[in-house]
Amino acid sequence: MNFWKSIALVASTALIAPASLAHAQGATAVTIVLPAGPDRLDPCETPRSVIGRIIKQNVVETLVELDYANQKTLPRLATSWEQTTPTEWVFKLRPGIAFHDGTPFDAKSVVHSLERTNDPALTCITRTKYLDGIDIKAVEVDSQTVKFTTKTAVPILPTLLAQLTISSVNTPKGEYTAKPIGTGPYTFDHWTQGENVGLVRNDAYWGDKPVIDKATYVWRTESSVAAAMVETGEADLAFSIAPQDATNPETDKVYPNSDSALFRLSVDIPPLNDVRVRKAINLAIDRKAFLGSVISDKAELAMQQVGPSALGFNPNLKPWAYDPEQAQKLLAEAKADGVDVDREIRMIGRPAMFANSNEFVEASAEMLRAVGFNIKLENLEMTQWLKMANKPFSPDRAPNIFLTMHDNNSGDAAFTAFFKYHSNGRQSELHDPALDALIVSAGTKSGDERVKEYNEVFRKIYEDVVADVPLFHMVNYMRVGKRLDFTPTIANAVELQLARLKLADKATD
Predict the structure, then answer these.
(1) In which element (H, E) is residue 335 found?
(2) Is the peptide bond preceding residue 86 cis, with omega within 30 degrees of 0?
(3) At what angle do helices 275-284 and 324-336 cross, to 10 degrees?
(4) Is 383 exposed, middle or buried (0-12, 13-18, 19+ CB in 10 A)?
(5) CA distances to 283, 352, 378, 479 from 359, in Å
(6) Is-cis flag, bond preceding 271, omega within 30?
(7) Alpha helix locations (H) across 11-60?
(8) What are the CA-CA distances from residue 222 to residues 197, 226, 241 (Å)?
(9) Rg of the chain over CA atoms, in angstroms?
C-alpha cells in the first residue's frame, strides 16, 4: 500500500523569542516555526495553512471536527445534527460555553459567523473554497439550536461546516479582524508584525485542559534555519523541513500535507489558449527527475488536484510522460497554424511555497526553455502572489504558468472542483458550461453516483481541457524537538492543535 493510502487509513539565526524565553516562561511554553508569516488572522481565512496552523481549533473552533484518520465527522461545538429534509439540517449546540470576550456561544453567534463568512465585502476563503455555489442560510430555532437551509441538496453539509469557524458576535462584519475571538483552548495574546504571534492557554476552556501554557509562532523561509532552531533547542517544532535537511530520524517525521502542487495555466491568453501548447508544457517537464532530489521521494505524481484519499479522486488517470521531442512537435505544429508560440510567458513562483520550491521552479523553467518556450521567471511575495491567484484577474495580464498548492484534507472533491474549475470559482481560469453543470450536479449526489460524476469532472479537466500541469501529491517533513511527544498527520496541513501536544517523558526545563 502506498504512502498516501496508508496514511489515509490512519491519516541558524536567533529567534525573536529565543528558547531561553520559552523556558523562562515555563516548561509548557513552546515555540513553533512556520515557513511563512500570516498576512492576517481572520477566522474566515483558516483554510489557509499559514493562518489555520495558528488559530484553527486553538483560538476559534468549528461546530464539527474532521476525524481525518477515519474519514468521519465528530462533534465539537455542536453536539449532534440531523438532516430533516434534503435541504435542511438541524444542529444542536453545546451549552454553557462562552467566547473569550465573555459573550455566550449560542445560535446567534453561529448565524453571525455564517453571515460574516458569506459577506461579499470579504473574500473569505472559507466561502470561496467551501461554500461558493451553495446557497446556504442559518436561522436560530432557539438559543442552542440552529437550522441550516440550502437551495439544493448538500449531502456533505456537516463536512462543509467543519471549515466554518465560529466567532463572537463582536467580530465585525464587512472588515477583517486581526484579533480573533473564539471559544478555543487558547486565547489570542499578540501579533507583532513581521516577528511573532503569541497565544496563551484559556483556563476557562469548556473541554480538557491542555498541557501547553503558551505558544509563540515565528517564521523562517529557510528550511535549514528552521531545522537548526529545533536541533539547538531554540524552537520546539518546525514545519516544512526540506528533504535534504531532514537528517535526524529521531526528530524528523514525514507526513502527507494533503497539498497537490501544480502549475495553473491562463488558458484564455495566447499562446496558452491552444491546447497543443498546454500539452507541450506537460510533456516538457520531467516530474520523475525531481522525486528524491528537490522533492521528497515519498511524494507521488499527480494527475488531478485532489489526492488519493479524497472522495472523487480518479484512479484511472495516468501521469504525463516526459517527452520533450513530442513537446517540440506540438509547438512546431501550433506555430505553423499561426500560434505565437514565441511569445514571452511568465512562470510565477512564491518563495518557500514548499521546501525547495524556488529550485523546482527554476529547473522547470529550464526544461520549458529547452523545448522552445520563452519563459520569464518571477517569484512573488505572498501579497502579490495572492492577488494573482484570485479573481478578479487583471484584464491585460501576460500569459502565465502559475505555481500553486491546493490542499484538500477534508476528503471530498467538492472542496476543489468549484473553487478551482467552475466558471464562478475564485481561482478558476475556466468557463465551460458543460463542466460547470457537471460540477454542480456532482455536488448534489451521494455515494457511488457522487464518485462517478467527480471522476468525470477530473477526467474532463485533465484529458480534454488540459487546464493545468499537475505535479505532485506532496508530503512534508516536520522536525519535532525532544521536549515534545507528537506525531504529525495529514490534519497538520492546515491546523496544529496545541491541545494535542504533549511533553516527552524526559523533557526538562
Answers:
(1) helix 324-336
(2) no
(3) 160
(4) exposed
(5) 20, 10, 12, 21
(6) yes
(7) 19-24, 49-55
(8) 19, 6, 9
(9) 23
pLDDT averaged per 10 residues in sequence order, the chain, 509 residues: 40 36 58 94 94 97 88 93 97 98 98 96 91 93 98 92 96 96 98 96 96 97 95 95 93 86 97 98 97 91 90 95 98 98 97 89 97 97 90 94 86 89 95 96 92 97 97 93 93 92 72
Non-local (6+) Cβ contacts of 15 within 8 A are 31, 218, 229, 234, 235
CA atoms within 13 A on the CB side of 299: 30
Kindly state the DSSP code that residue 448 receives in the 8-state scheme.
H
Q: Residue 448 burial by CB count (10 A; 0-12/13-18/19+): exposed, middle or buried?
A: exposed
Beta pairing, strands 374-379 & 186-192: unpaired
Sheet architecture: strand order including 78-85: 78-85, 88-93, 145-150, 136-142
Beta-carbon-side half-sphere exposure of residue 40 (alpha carbons within 13 Å)? 17
pTM reported for the whole predicted model: 0.79
What is the residue-wise DSSP string for 93-127? Answer: EPSS-B-TTSPBPSHHHHHHHHHHHT-TTS--HII
The answer to whether residues 104 and 98 touch, using CB atoms and an 8 Å cutoff, is yes
At 130, is the secondary structure helix, strand, or coil? helix
Q: Spell out the residues 6+ positions from residue 8 whose beta carbon is closer than 8 angstroms to its own.
A: 71, 256, 308, 309, 490
End-to-end CA distance of the chain: 41
